[in-house]
Amino acid sequence: MKERIMKEGEKSSQCIDNVEIRMIRFNDEGGNCEMTLSRRQFIKLSVSTVTVLSASLPFEAEKARAAGYDLKLRDAKENPSICHFCAGGCGLIVHVRDGKVINIEGDPDNPTNKGSLCPKALACIQVRENPVRPLKPLYRAPGAKEWQPISWDEAIERIAQKIKEVRDTTWINDGTNRTDALGMLGSAEVDNEESYLLTKFMRTMGSTYIEHQARI
């Protein structure tokens, strides 16, 4: 492909193919000088030119980033909090505006995490603000494909009935007074006191299968 460009008395011709770029510039004496560049050289020259021009512009990335951060959190209230996803107890700063959590970040003054957060802690905002988060207990009948919302009273009643049914039908009455059909798996969502009560409850039910994984 061959293209000719006329601009302010200066004539250039570019011959571009898969191998090289050839530029011819006519000088004031009517002669010409020819420069041949490979595509790689042309790209390097272009990148270098853009870099030099960008460096000369009055733009500071850190100031721009700080300005964007301030704009994002404008009129938001800072609330110190603690991440509930594991036993680490990392400190959080929760930014709230108009009753809505808009940002969560690590608390640099907290001695546990010193401002850093894991992905689970950064996702804490989803616990409150996720639009598809279930707000009621969901029940799926045997054989059904869809989950149906039910009330908390109905959910608790169903759970109690199932626990009693399983315990009564699997009770081992050989002096050990236990059942092998019930078990408990704790999570990071419960604190020490709740873990104690859950353990006492499961032992009352006759179960010895009690496990707690703080980082699930």
Q: How many DSSP E strands?
A: 13
CATH topology of the largest domain: Phosphorylase Kinase, domain 1
* Termini Cα gap: 62 Å
CATH class of the largest domain: Alpha Beta
Number of domains: 3
Tell me the Rg in angstroms.
Answer: 34 Å
Structural class: alpha+beta
Q: Note poorly predicted spans.
A: 1-19
* Strand proportion: 25-35%
The ordered H/E elements are EEEEHHEEEHHEEHEEEHE
Helix share of residues? 25-40%
Q: Give the biggest beta sheet.
A: 4 strands, antiparallel
Shape: elongated
**Count of DSSP-assigned helices:** 6
Q: What is the topology, as strand order, of the major beta sheet?
A: 1-2-3-4
Quick check: average pLDDT? 78
**How does CATH name the architecture of the largest domain?**
2-Layer Sandwich
What labels would you give this structure?
disordered N terminus; 3 domains; oxidoreductase; 13 strands; Molybdopterin oxidoreductase; TAT_signal; alpha+beta; molybdenum ion binding
Explain what the structure shows:
There is one protein chain. The protein is built from six helices and 13 strands. The chain has 216 residues and is an alpha+beta fold. It has three domains: 58 residues; 67 residues, Phosphorylase Kinase, domain 1, CATH 3.30.200.210; 61 residues, no CATH class. The chain has a four-stranded antiparallel sheet. The radius of gyration is 34 Å and the shape is elongated.
